[in-house]
Amino acid sequence: MSMLQFVSSSVWKSLFGKAADSLERSIDHADEFMIVDYEPITSTFVSVPQDLGQLSADAYVSGIIAGVLDGAGFSARVTAHSVELEDGEYSKQNSTGMPPRKDKAVFLVKFSPEVLSRDAALER
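Request: output the structure for the sequence above.
Response:
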């Protein structure tokens, strides 16, 4: 979807000074896409207390993504996930001067059925 390409490039550059590291379509679900950021600024400099367990500082960014999409008429549910890096997946020296991260931020975008049907109709 071109709207997600806009979000992962132009919007991301405006917010974080760089494009997202990747935009991927789910293999299992046609209505799901993933925006991947190997150095998410929101969780790089925020420490979550252990008693808050699953709290994600990247959830703030998922709200921004959802707002941009909704404002453009693409209703979607957006969630933030911290996914452990696989061996050799990301070897670039991080730009923060911090120790290398062991995880990446994955923003899962699940579009509503109306958005997918509208997009399919436009492609015909």
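The longest strand covers residues 76-84.
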